[in-house]
Amino acid sequence: MATIATTRTGTRTDEEIQRDVLAELKWEPRVQPNEIGVIAKDGVVTLTGWVDSYVKRWAAEEAAHRVRGVKAVANDIEVRLLNSAERTDSEIAAAALRALEWDAVVPVDKLDVTVSKGWVTLKGDVEWQYQKQDAERVVRRLAGVRGVSNLIAVKPRVSPHQLEQTIEQALVRSAETDAHRISVEVQGSKVLLEGTVRSWAEREEAARAAWSAPGVTAVENKITISYV
Questions:
Q1: What is the SS3 assignment for 54?
Q2: What phi, psi does 221 have (nearest 5°)?
Q3: Which of 59, 89, 153, 188 could be 30's S-S partner, Cβ–Cβ 3.0 to 4.6 Å?
Q4: Cα separation of 189 and 160, whole Å?
Q5: What DSSP state is assigned to residue 105?
Q6: What's the pLDDT score for residue 129?
Q7: What is the 3-state secondary structure of 167-184?
Q8: Considering only CA atoms, which of 52, 11, 13, 9 is closest in space to residue 31?
Q9: In Å, how far are 148, 191, 220 from 217, measured between CA atoms?
């Protein structure tokens, strides 16, 4: 099963992108570069080959996304577990529940875990985006896991207006942002940031503040930087 995700763009040739992805894979300690093939076309990188754990498959995808000019990554890497790493679905499900229970930030009582042929599906509702991300991070590291589908929904307990106020107040409290130069608009669970700031750090801090609000599932950062 291939997964495709977008990332930042750049004006680079496919040969340059392929070369740099291969170099980044060599730099990534969790994978062996000779396990993975790389194809680049129009800025879209396809990863092929096979690895012996889902963590390696994930790490390879992360490495490809770090390369400048990559527009999207199609992850066709196959997970082939070694005999010693094989686990039954029942064993994986039990291990997943234990791991989630031990994670202090994940509300395990609000989640459902299903395992089929080593593929883990997570469902349920949480209030924070980081809880959704952390639940997947915990599960994908388990032995025997071949893949993870994260279907957890992030649902805020506040109205869009309250959410907008929460983010604006966070910007005012931050020593690194000038809140008066930033506008916040909430569209459902998506936050749109606009305005002009004086540094990249200030722009990133505004995005961090937005992501830290309960119920946010997407942040579109349109803030520009002016050094004048």
A1: helix
A2: -100, 100
A3: 59
A4: 8
A5: T
A6: 84
A7: HHHHHHHCCCCCHHHEEE
A8: 52
A9: 19, 8, 10
How confident is the model at residue 2, as a pLDDT?
54
Per-residue tokens: 128: 């924070």
Question: 195 has which bridge partners?
Answer: 182
Tell the residue number behind the tokens 């039954």, with chain if given: 88
Helices assigned H by DSSP within 66-113: 89-102
C-alpha 104/C-alpha 131 separation (Å) is 10
Q: What is d(CA 140, CA 31) in angstroms, rounded to the nearest whole number?
A: 15
Tens of pLDDT, residue by residue over 53-95, are 999 999 999 999 999 889 899 999 999 888 777 899 999 999 9
CB atoms near residue 67 (< 10 Å)? 25
Percent of the chain with pLDDT over 70: 93
C-alpha angle with apex 225: 169 to 200, nearest 5 degrees? Answer: 75
190 membership: H or E segment, kind and range: strand 190-197
Cβ-in-10-Å burial (0-12, 13-18, 19+) of 81 comes to: middle
- Is the pLDDT reported for residue 10 higher than 50? no
Which residue, among 187, 227, 228, 225, has the nearest Cα to 205 in the 3D structure? 225
